[in-house]
Amino acid sequence: MTYSKAAYLRAAAHFTLYGLVKYIPPPLGDACRFLVLKLFVAEIRSWKIKDGVTVWFPEGIRIGRHVTINEGVFLDGFGGLTIGDNCRIAHGCSFISEDHVFSDPDTPIWRQGKLAGPIVLEDDVWCGCGVKVLRGVSIGKGSVIAAGAVVTRDLPPYSIAMGVPAKVVGVRGAA
């Protein structure tokens, strides 16, 4: 995949401006990060983006209302990333919407390109500390993902999931 000069310039502007505000402590830092991200992301409706959050390919990212994204989170918008309203993202989570192709053992992996797929968190999802969500995954409304889980497949609404890979172990509201 090749990028246009405009894309490189936009990325340079994003990384430069965001780099200036990435580690400013809250609440001032939250407001600064919101204002910078507002220039680059597809859509942002929440200002609680804590210090140390890394944002790649912001043009593919949509963030809903009343979302909190805590320290050290990695957001990758290459394949698309949508975070619905009222979501909580604990520190150290990663949302990786791309993957390397590695099928040809005679070609270096970096030359084989990437696979991209959108990640969707529906409304009211809570991702515990250190959760990893991989490309092409949709997490249903109201789901809770336990700390350290790696989500590799879609999860239905109101799931309680944990493990590597994440498996549904319960349903919210079930007695």
What would you say this structure looks like, in words?
This protein is of the alpha/beta class and 175 residues long. It has one domain (5-169): Hexapeptide repeat proteins (UDP N-Acetylglucosamine Acyltransferase, domain 1). It has two helices and 19 strands. It has helices at residues 5-21, 28-40, and strands spanning 43-44, 48-49, 54-56, 61-63, 68-69, 74-76, 81-83, 88-89, 94-96, 98-100, 114-116, 119-121, 126-127, 132-134, 138-139, 144-145, 150-151, 159-162, 167-171. The strands form four sheets. The protein has a seven-stranded mixed sheet. Strands 1-4-7-12-15 form a five-stranded parallel sheet, covered by helices on one side. It has a five-stranded parallel sheet with strand order 3-6-9-14-17, with no helix packed on it. The longest helix has 17 residues, at 5-21.
- The low-confidence runs, each spanning 5 or more residues with pLDDT under 50, are none
Compute the number of helices.
2
The gyration radius over C-alpha positions equals 17 Å
CATH fourth-tier homologous superfamily: Hexapeptide repeat proteins
Number of domains: 1
Please state the second-level CATH architecture.
3 Solenoid
Query: Strand fraction band?
Result: 25-35%
What average pLDDT do the residues reach?
A: 96
Helix/strand order, N-terminal first: HHEEEEEEEEEEEEEEEEEEE
The order of strands across the largest sheet is 2-5-8-13-16-18-19
Distance between the termini: 50 Å
